[in-house]
């Protein structure tokens, strides 16, 4: 019988929100089509995450446990995913669209003779697999169909809502044999450096405060970071703010940066160039702050504030603090 399989990404010792979003969608399809729902975890101590997946209604969990997976290098991850695929033989395998998965999805598809549909905004199985993907800097949505199975899909964060099943399951646990020779590695991870503004992963953040060209100096940067801290949000930036030297390149959102889909996106001093919009158009609520009333960002904003960010942000910060103090 065909299986629908979902890859579970682990960050900060728990399944990522985007993984659970994809798992929820796969559960809907599996229950509708009457096929088993499986999940897979790749981690040196993968057994620790079984309990976290039970509320999501999985029928089977494939575990790959190996010390080589601690470094998140492409070679062991690719080999482990291939081992899981061969063990599960899924008709459809879905992933959260993370940087790590972008590195290996095409190679995995080639190894297992599957179609690869990356970075999709939504997908359906009918039984052919149809996906919707933003193209042309998110100005157009394109539908693509894979006429044959198996199919590998990576799904943008925020495309679906993570929701536990009505009834938890007691899934079958399958330990996938995996023997990886670390001597074949061409690279070794020596150290992970975390910057002060990297405390919340952009792709997993529920709230993002993003800075644009209008944030022109260190004072503006501090206002953005203070608002983000008060909201428990991640900090992002447009290419213009990155090139001004105020924010590290790892925080860039847009066509050449990260793609995000938070519940709340606060665009501070961002004009709304299509290259930036391509990376955040999937946000649920967009609040734009810009002194130019004709800025394109207002065309996609849920709420707009026309004014000087250096005057508006202190008021927002004060109001957030007042609300938090009263709660």
Please sum up the structure shown.
The chain is α/β, with parallel strands linked by helices. The protein is 28% helix and 25% strand.
List keywords for this structure.
electron transport; flavin adenine dinucleotide binding; seven-stranded parallel sheet; Rossmann fold; 2 domains; 327 residues; globular; 8 helices; ETF_a/b_N; single chain; 17 strands; five-stranded parallel sheet
Word description of this protein:
This protein has helices at 17-33, 50-53, 74-88, 99-112, 218-231, 239-243, 274-277, 309-326; strands at residues 4-8, 10-11, 14-15, 37-42, 60-64, 92-96, 115-120, 122-125, 129-135, 140-146, 151-155, 172-175, 207-211, 234-237, 264-268, 285-290, 303-306. With 327 residues, it is of the alpha/beta class. 43% of the residues are buried. The radius of gyration is 21 Å and the shape is globular. The protein is built from eight helices and 17 strands. The protein folds into two domains: 4-184, HUPs (Rossmann fold, 3-Layer(aba) Sandwich), CATH 3.40.50; 202-326, TPP-binding domain (Rossmann fold). Helix 3 (74-88) crosses helix 4 (99-112) and helix 5 packs parallel to helix 8. 28% of the residues lie in helices and 25% in strands. The strands form four sheets. The chain has a seven-stranded parallel beta sheet with strand order 7-11-6-1-4-5-12, sandwiched between helices. A five-stranded parallel beta sheet has the order 14-13-15-16-17. The model has no long low-confidence stretch (mean pLDDT 91).
